[in-house]
Amino acid sequence: MTVSSDAFGEARWVGRATPVKPGHDGMNASARSDRLERVFAKGRPALIAYLMAGYPDRDGSLQAMRVVARAGADLIEVGVPYTDQLADGPVIVNASARAREAAGGSFGLVETLEVVADFIGKRQGDSPAIALMCYLNPLMSMGFERAAQLIADAGAEGVIIPDLPPDMADDWLRAAEGRLDTVFLAAPTSTDARLDLVGEASSGFVYCVSTTGITGERETLPLGLSDTVARVKAHTSLPVAVGFGVSSAGQAAEVARIADGVVVGSAFVKRQADPAELEALVAEVASAVHSAGRA
Q1: pTM metric for this prediction
Q2: 274 in active site
Q3: Helix, strand or coil for residue 2?
Q4: Quick one: which of 10, 49, 111, 282 could link to 6 by a disulfide (CB 3.0–4.6 Å)?
C-alpha cells in the first residue's frame, strides 16, 4: 500500500478503492480520551512550541525541551526528523537534516521517542504536554499498532500527522484508540465537507493552518485569518490552534485573540541551538499569548 500526498493531508490511498471514513466501527473523537484538550483548559490561550528532535544534536534537543517548558510553553510539539517534509519550510527542513547528520543519518522515530521519554521521566510539576509531529511513512514503516504503543509508552499524549487525511485515517485511529489523541489539519482552502471530517476525526484539538504553503516565519499574518478560524470553529467543539507563519510575540498575541492556541515553529527552531536566546523568545511569546484578550 502506498500513499500519494498533497499538502495538509489532501492525500489519496493508491490501490484502495473505497476510503473508510472516521467513525467506522464506532471510531470517532467522542470515543477517545482527549488527552491534549486539557492544555486549553486553563482559562487562557495556549502556546504550542514546535521543536525538532535531535537538533542540534540529541542532548541539545532535550535541553531545548526543558528550556521551552521553563519559559512557559503549554504543549511541546516534537518534530520527527524525516527526509520528505512536504509541509515544512527551510528552517525546519535544515534542522531535520542536521539532526540526522549529527546521529550519523539514523535519527528517526525511535530516537525521537527516546528523547521524549527522557524529558517525560524528569519533568516536574505542571510541565507541558507532548505531541509528536510525524509524517505518515515512519508510522507505516513501523506498523501503526506498534508505533502507537511506543509513542504512548514514551509519554506523548498525541500525534499530528500532516499528510494523513481524516477520511483515510481509520487504520491509524483504530491503533491509537485509548492511547493517543490524533490532531488533523484544517486549511483556508478546506471545504465544509472536509472541515466536518477534520472535526469528527480529531481529538485533543484541531490544527488550523493559517495559510496555504509551507511553514516559516512571515512578516504579516494572512488577511482573513479570523474568518478562517471562525469557519473551523463552526465545524468542531474542540479547541482550535493556529500555526504556520506565526513568528513574533505581536503576531502570537493577535492570533491568541481569535483562537484557543498558537503554534510557533520556525522562529523557535531557528534559536534551538542557543538555549538562552530560545528561552528569551519563548518567554516573550508565552507572556503575549497568555495575556491576550479575546476579540
Answers
A1: 0.86
A2: no
A3: strand
A4: 10
